[in-house]
Amino acid sequence: MDAGTLTRYWHHIERLGIVPLVAELNGKVVGHLDVIFSSELSLGSFLYLDVLTIHKAYRRRGVAKSLIKEAERLAKSRKARYMLVQPQQYEGPSGLTYTSCGFKKAFDVYDLEMPVNQSEIPSGVRLVSVPRTQEAPLDTHAMICGWYNIGAKMWDYGVNPDVELLHAFSAHQLALSALTNGSVYFLHLGQNFSDPSTGTLCLWAPTPLEKDALQRVLQAATATASWLGMKRLTTKSVERHITTLEKAGFVLKSRGEPYLAKELE
């Protein structure tokens, strides 16, 4: 990494409280695993196993399992209820590595999309920008859609986007608060730099969920997307929110890679 990239990486680590675990063999770094402690409304207290990388010359030698075992020791020391991970391929090498370490399927994630055919903000909804100093509302709001990662990482991605990358590809990223019925909803709209007509949506809603208010906020999100020239919104969600999103106009397209969990005693 150059100095600028390394600085941004360390700021990212500090914001999320990432703990980098490193595997060494004969004085050489052969692998690393980033882990994040988090407590989220729908998930409770857990340790998330994020980026796992093993040097190609040292794979199939137990390095990955050693890092996962160290993550488990760390999780138990911090009284986390369980460990959580989303492997790149559940039925591939990464998924097999975690299942061999005692992880089991916890829940599925689904891909959805909807056409952008709303151009006006519904009455009673007001949108304001979210400052970068805004704390992630993980203990008061449920992440309805945006399950590309855990809530802590998706929030950081939404309010702290990589500005240099956005400028390079002319993509829009908006982090907004939607105020309605005395409640605050948070949403993030991201524009696909390779296809500006397509955007992604993440949305956090206060609980208990008010479905009518949520529908208006989703309409406000699609109206905002239309101002940016988007014709289609995509997102990821979990099974318990699928019906609500379908009523708002989303169409279920496919099932993605599941999350795996390991309970800790």
Q: What attributes does this structure have?
A:
265 residues, alpha+beta, Aminopeptidase, 8-stranded mixed beta sheet, 7 helices, 30% helix
Secondary-structure element order, N to C: HEEEHEHEEEEHHEEEHEHEE
Reading off the top of the CATH hierarchy, the class of the largest domain is best stated as Alpha Beta
Largest sheet: 8 strands, mixed
Task: Give the C-alpha Rg.
Answer: 19 Å
User: What overall form do the CA principal axes indicate?
Assistant: globular
Quickly give the CATH architecture of the largest domain: 3-Layer(aba) Sandwich
Overall average residue pLDDT: 91
Tally of alpha and pi helices: 7
Care to give the gist of this entry?
By secondary structure, this protein is an alpha+beta fold. The protein has 7 helices and 14 strands.
Structure write-up:
- It is a single chain.
- This protein is α+β, with helices and mostly antiparallel strands and 265 residues long.
- The protein folds into two domains: 3-106 and 259-263, Aminopeptidase (3-Layer(aba) Sandwich), CATH 3.40.630.30; 110-255, Aminopeptidase.
- Helices cover 30% and strands 37% of the residues.
- The strands form two sheets. Strands 6, 7, 8, 9, 10, 11, 12 and 13 form an eight-stranded mixed sheet that branches.
- A hairpin with a 2-residue loop joins β1 (19-25) and β2 (28-40).
- The protein starts with a helix and ends with a strand.
